[in-house]
Amino acid sequence: MTAQAMQVPAPTLEQRMLALGQAAREAGRTLAQATAEARNGALRQAAAAIRRNAATILEANGRDMAAARERALGPAMLDRLLLDAKRIEAMARGLEEIAALPDPIGACIAEWTMPNGLRISRVRVPLGCIGIIYESRPNVTADAGGLCLKSANATILRGGSESFHSSRAIHSCLAWGLRAAGLPEAAIQMVPVTDREAVGHLLAMSGHVDVIVPRGGRSLIERVQKESRIPVLAHLEGNCHVYLHEAADPDMARHIVLNAKMRRTGVCGAAETLLVDRAAAARLLPAVIGDLIAAGCEVRGDAPTQTLDRRVRPASEADWRTEYLDAIIAVRQVEGLEAAIAHIETYGSHHTDSIVTADIAVAERFLREVDSAIVLHNASTQFADGGEFGMGAEIGIATGKLHARGPVGAEQLTSYKYVVHGTGQCRP
Amino acid sequence: MTAQAMQVPAPTLEQRMLALGQAAREAGRTLAQATAEARNGALRQAAAAIRRNAATILEANGRDMAAARERALGPAMLDRLLLDAKRIEAMARGLEEIAALPDPIGACIAEWTMPNGLRISRVRVPLGCIGIIYESRPNVTADAGGLCLKSANATILRGGSESFHSSRAIHSCLAWGLRAAGLPEAAIQMVPVTDREAVGHLLAMSGHVDVIVPRGGRSLIERVQKESRIPVLAHLEGNCHVYLHEAADPDMARHIVLNAKMRRTGVCGAAETLLVDRAAAARLLPAVIGDLIAAGCEVRGDAPTQTLDRRVRPASEADWRTEYLDAIIAVRQVEGLEAAIAHIETYGSHHTDSIVTADIAVAERFLREVDSAIVLHNASTQFADGGEFGMGAEIGIATGKLHARGPVGAEQLTSYKYVVHGTGQCRP
Fold first, then answer.
1. Partner residue facing A378 (CB), from B211, B371, B423
2. Packing angle between helix B54-70 and helix B164-180, nearest 10 degrees?
3. From A382, A383, A401, residue closest to B415, measured CB to CB
């Protein structure tokens, strides 16, 4: 290299990000025309590479874990970050399951013929390029990259800095799968630096990235929604409710509340607030509260609920708004269906809400009037999950109403185009 | 009124806009639960009110026209602004046609039962509140307000200041229809001031408005996309192409090009660039160019095309990017299908593009690889219209890929929710 060549300034972070975006855009075009076999082959090859390179991935994860311990991250954070043989196998199997899903691309969604003979069809196509911004769960690298590949979208992955080495090792396996299937490696790219400004550049690349999917806590989502010049498919929090109507079967009420709250407290479909008809509170609540407390749940309630069980702690206004993601539940008594719906409208997050009642008419009104992505009758809110809906893997539960609502699987990561077959038609 | 009460400061524009948004949000909730009969009744009553108040509307339009002439607006602008008896009748009939469309709300899009017995259905629901920002076509007030009402969405209309009086008179008829049908008048609101800052406030009301639909020229769309904190359903320009493949039937090529360019030059589906296979240019182009020039079209072409007809003026790089919306066409010769697709990808606006060819395999490749909302084979680009697709009235042609692509009718102004019927299911 000559002295002159060495004087060329290094590209700025913005330039590097733009190059990433251009490469992704181009790879997306190739991917959109690739066969389902090629895309599924890449997913299976990536799964094999993850299994084969388990030791390398564990070593990279060890480095992330050591740095995290040094920085004294909390146990929940460390658990999210940790990989072990079982979790690595789950990632590989997850990719194989995505490969086995029906192909979402090229399907004809609808087809009709106009009186002038034009044959019109709506055909499913990829969105283009998806930017995924996530916190420090290294498995998201495989899950999100895999779902985007399945739906023939290029992806730019930006994981949390804590999981950088783990994600990079996993990303290498995805890249290996793409190469092995003859697909462009740039179809799944990872932001190669941990600088926070890289996110800002990504959110401004509206010419190269078609949609941003943030996965993480409230502050991440809010930052992305505020800064992004690109449409955002956001999974906001899941402040989910169970409403026990006065006609609820008492046994069913007990089972559903306990399951909705305590099966897993850290998932977005976990119930956070329990609403109960005042008229039935004395009959329904004591057993429900007893179950919860016996299972290790802290129960916070309004004044009338506190009188039913002395172990109930006082709930404040803030509790109605809180997604605990923990073994805590807020209980409030309401004056019937309308008050329950009004509470959910005021405090809920339009994610998942359930009514327990034997009264079909009341249930139908709840299902119709509660404005949430998922509404259930006589079932636990913990079913809020793409897999439980038969949709396969998902990238999250969308709480907005535009484009996709509820579980976002491979099909939700697509758009469509109108294909029109004519025989020389001109418009009169 | 006491002196003290009079000291209360007048609300700021921002406060007034927020009040508008809150009222719209609330009205939207009522609308979402109203019957199709009520919504269609309001549309028909509004149509009747428009007919009954034609003189009032014309008088208001006269004021707008006088002000526009004083400001020396151009003839195209004046024509867009002008109302007459025929255009008023067309508005009324348009609302009745929207009322007659199938109801998009409450329909079950899909339904299935999981092995655990959960019955899951995807049900169509309104988006909520739609902000429409448009230029000075007063008929948009009726068309857009009507389509949003049909799809049970509240609307905040913000028309161009030039059409303020006309739009206000039309809006009164819409409000009359809502009242007559027992629906909240706030379901269709009009920004009551012409201040430009009102748009800025509207674009920031993400808590009250769910989607923004801008209708107008490039600068309006770009401003909205740049400023909006709310998702935008944008109709960008229609830089539409007709591609004459070497296997095109010469007669069909002539008819389609002439129709695609000259039927109406001001619509977004009008062709702006003609691509021709170099190998067939001498055979296909002379008649095509002759037709266009005979019809009053200016033809601009690349060097080889200029040699075919001395009347062809030189085209520059800028021509490939231009949506003329006028009797001008740019002609370029290309080295076959791939070069045509590459040209469209580089210069097109992903709106509507057509190929003329007798070769089915070539056509299928064009339809698959051209990444536009509408792709046609052997048909005029002027069919890019919701009505021509059998979808009824539309609010525009979306050129983005998220949520809706192509014609945006009542159905595209909806979202969905998942309704789950259980019998006590808990998640294992």
1. B423
2. 160
3. A401
